[in-house]
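Lecture notes, unit on protein representations.

Consider one protein chain, 189 amino acids long.
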Amino acid sequence: MVLPSRSWIRSISEALILPMRIAAQIVTGVGFLGAGTILQSRGAVHGLTTAAGLWVAAAIGIAVGAGSYVAAMLTTVALLIILTLLRPLENHLLRNHIHTVVLQLARGQKISQVMEVIEDSAIETAGIEISRGPHPAVTIKVRGAENEALRLIQAAALHGLNAVEEGSPTRAAFHGPPSPPPPPTSPLA
């Protein structure tokens, strides 16, 4: 009976451990890449989908390298379905969560003040429109719950800007300075 030498046993165990070590290094490297893609700004986190996509792409690569082609193909198809179909669904579900806030600029106030207000209120905007003319105004589409719009209105008040939420039953929208009261009518006329 021939017994295997210790060096032969060690080389077999190293051959079994080596792929796990390679996979661990891939996971570590992709973790750092994923962490670099995640950004926090204006109270919202961006890049989570990108980071998750990097992780899944690395897992697919490891599966292909290990010879698990069916698992890699199924995961690829699942990833493509998730990335292409869930974005429109998310946009559809969040479309009712956009509030319009109008900030009217008085004489001497600048657009840069509005940008400061947006930054200070830490909201996520879906769009900003600037209308010029005798009564310049900035229309801001705020993404999120109603308290996000209220936070913007409160920040605007702290900066001395007049702001209202459009379409709110408790607040009237403004369009320029208040009009003068109508002239008194005579009961004899």
